[in-house]
Amino acid sequence: MKHLGPLALFGALAIAWTWPLALHLHDAVPGDPGDNYSFLWNLWWMRHVIATPGLAYFRTTYLFHPFGTTIADHPHTALPALVAATVLRPASVITAQNLLLLGYVCANMAAMYALVWDITRHRRGAIFAGVMFGLSPYLAVHLLGHFDLVAAWVLPLFALALRRAIRGSDASALGAGLVLAVTAYTTYYYVVYEGFFMVVFLGASIGAVAMVRASPPRSAAVRWFRNVCLAGMIGAGVVALAILLTGGRTLYVGDIILSARTPQNALTAMWVFAIGWLLWRWRAVLTLDPDVHRRMRRAMAVAWRVAAVFLAGAAPLLWQAGWLIARGEYVTQQYGWRSVPHGVDLLAPLLGHPLHPLMAAVSVPAYAALRENYVEVIGWIGIVPLVLLFAARRARPLDPGEMRVWRIVAIAFALFALGPFLTIGGFDTGLKLPEILLRYVPFAANARMPGRAMVGVYMALGLLAAVALSSATGRLRSPLVQWLLIGLVAFEYWDTPIRLTPLDHPSAYRALAAAAPGAVCEVPFGIGDGLSVGVGSQDRAALYHATLHEHPLAGGYIGRMPADAAERYRRYPLTAALLRLSGDTSAPSPVSSSDPSPCRYLVVDRRTSSAELQAYVAQLQVDRIASDEDRDVYRLR
């Protein structure tokens, strides 16, 4: 009963923070038109699978008909879709999705509250952490369309179970494995982050390694190494500065061409020498006392229990992944050292909240000036959390050792979020960071947007700030001051009114829903995924419309589409022509209507179809079966 008040507060904040979503549960979804449509299709597909014997959720021909696709490596949201198909079955797909989102926001705050309460038993501190994590700018920007990432409640819940497990609870270790399995059916990125958290948290809890300041060098070899690193650092810095000032040059040494037009290589060399110079001043010390051995054995016991439960719970999904690899259909992004997606700019914490009603006018142009998409590189922490951490730096928490672990977690996730190289003000400093190696880690490489690791930073900093609040002295101990700080952090993270995508129910699709079975080609026609710019039209509203007419869709959009999808559609004369007339210049020229087709119906949007595209459809052997103010529906003879 003592937690009903905080839970009621979180429920009210979920409605207010997503306002005016509560007024449009049945006719709109958050965000701009785009990825949000795919999550509606996920919910519909689960309902269709349950109602239709013989269908499997992770493999479908209702997208990319007739050859179909897997959705195992797509943001499939299988567990939320199952909830929408069972518990929320009476609601429409739109309403079910919006209720899930409201539930996510409330659960994010509640799970973070539970984690901090388990550590501090301090209600206001736990509420502060719940608000800071659950209303964070990271979640605000991903509410614009990445609905799977809004379900961040799994992270603090996993941390809570893992924390209890490392303290001796075998049941909590099994619970952590269960949460990890649940995460696999909710959002792929957070499986990677929970695995990363477990490695960092357990490793830091063991406490076997410490960095200590080295004694002054005594041997000539060490002094020589120090001097070489110092000279190399200065020399590489001078070369980088010269390239910046002069634009660099290209040198020809025989048949060898040496190009030095950008300073990044010289800067990388400078950083390497700098790190070498630091190594003689600081060194890692390995401690292997009996207590470390005990903690190490416990960490290993926790790790294998978590892994065992996860492997058992996620077996259907892992089987699908293995099947994809065996068939050569596993799709991941291919990129080089320079083209790898970069992470959060080091200046991002100074750029403000891009969705805040007062800060947006400054924050959005600031991100634009750095040529950054704030959705993927959001870094605003806020003034109140940082001031609180600074003001309470001398406070004594209940367990300083545990706070050390959480500081390590915060630093580790921050390094992850910074991406493959350090960027300051949009400038690549040349410093390569550990995340650059992620592309060599199987499966984890598909978590390709490093800035999303900021969710772990918000969790760790929220916990540290809450612990500081719970152990504060002086005026910070006053309940009035603490409630004021809770209100201020909520104000700093405010984002309403949120943007909404209105959803209609065109009569053309109602008529199509009553038509005989057959696949549909939306015109303009296109295919796309999260790894490419796509081919042809990129109007992802086709996914929502598919939930209305309930026919298989030729073409479509997905997180990871089949690698040869475009080539397959170019083999069909009809879709090759539609692709060409929808913007794909590499597709063959239009052909006669007597050629084979992967679809039976054409839905032509007159607003976006060119005159040439409409003329091509008109000369096909088709019968018009429905029309409305924007679209015509044709059946191919």
State the separation between the terminal residues, measured CA to CA. 66 Å
Give the count of structural domains.
3
Helix content, binned percent: 40-55%
Q: Which class best fits the helix and strand makeup? A: alpha+beta
Radius of gyration: 27 Å
Average pLDDT score: 89
Number of helices: 25
Shape: globular
Our estimate of the beta-strand percent is 5-15%
| Biggest sheet details | 5 strands, mixed
Instruction: Enumerate the strands of the largest sheet in spatial order, edge to edge or round the barrel.
Output: 14-11-16-18-17
Low-confidence stretches: none
Number of strands: 18
Textual characterization of the structure:
The structure is a single chain. The protein is an alpha+beta fold. Helices cover 51% and strands 11% of the residues. α2 (36-51) packs parallel to α22 (541-549) and α11 (220-246) runs antiparallel to α12 (264-279). The chain folds into three domains: 4-26 and 92-208 and 299-492, no CATH class; 212-286, no CATH class; 507-636, no CATH class. The protein contains 25 helices and 18 strands. The radius of gyration is 27 Å and the shape is globular. Strands 14-11-16-18-17 form a five-stranded mixed β-sheet. The model has no long low-confidence stretch (mean pLDDT 89). β17 and β18 form a beta hairpin.
Q: In brief, what are we looking at here?
A:
The chain contains 25 helices and 18 strands. The chain is of the alpha+beta class.
Write the layout of secondary structure elements.
Blueprint (H helix, E strand, L loop, with lengths): L3 H14 L10 E3 L5 H16 L7 E2 L8 E2 L7 H8 L7 H28 L2 H12 L2 H6 L4 H4 L3 H13 L3 H15 L3 H19 L2 E5 L6 H27 L2 E5 L2 E5 L3 H16 L2 E5 L3 H24 L1 H12 L33 H10 L4 H4 L5 H9 L8 H19 L2 E4 L2 E6 L21 H17 L8 H14 L7 E3 L4 H7 L6 E4 L2 E4 L5 E2 L4 H9 L3 E2 L1 E3 L6 H7 L1 H9 L19 E5 L5 H8 L3 E6 L3 E6 L1
Helix pairs in contact: 1-4, 2-3, 2-4, 2-22, 4-5, 4-8, 4-19, 5-19, 5-20, 8-9, 8-10, 9-10, 9-13, 10-13, 10-18, 11-12, 17-19, 18-19
